[in-house]
Amino acid sequence: GLSAFPRIVKRPMDLGTIETKLKEKQYCDAYEFGEDMKLVWKNAKQFNQPGSQIYMIADNLSNQFERKFARIKKKRDEKSKGKESQQEERLQFTQLIKQLTSEDLGIVVEMIERKCPQALREDED
To answer: Which parts of 1-125 are beta strand (E)?
Structure first.
């Protein structure tokens, strides 16, 4: 029964949690969302017996999701071709930042904190 769920599924995820995370804008990008969706289907298949109705539905939904999500991945791969120019822009930005006074740098950081606070957070991974 469900009492075995925490023993079998080590990283629980469900569609309700995903909906809440979407509403609260907790996903940084589509790929974080995609990872949670994949986890829902993986957990459903891991917990239920192969051939059971829930397993087959989870497998079907997983396959549909992967097909549709592949389009997003393809677009990302096309965009990543421009990464070299992004690196050049970052280097130029770094050079310009180095030219700022401490006071001006403080103003820039305050602006970033107001407009895009997640940009100042360090990755927790």
So the answer is: none
Q: Which residue has the tokens 């990008």?
A: 29
**Residue whose entry in the numeric block shows the structure tokens 């030219």:** 99
59: tokens are 């497998």
Identity of the amino acid at 66 = E
Q: pLDDT digits over 45-89, tens only?
A: 999 999 999 999 999 999 999 998 888 876 666 666 556 667 777
Residue 12 to residue 8: CA distance in whole angstroms: 10
The residue type of 2 is L
CA dihedral for 65, 66, 68, 74, sign (positive or negative): positive
* Residue recorded with tokens 């107001």: 114
pLDDT for the residue 125? 45
Torsion angle in degrees (nearest 10) through CA of 17, 6, 35, 86: 100
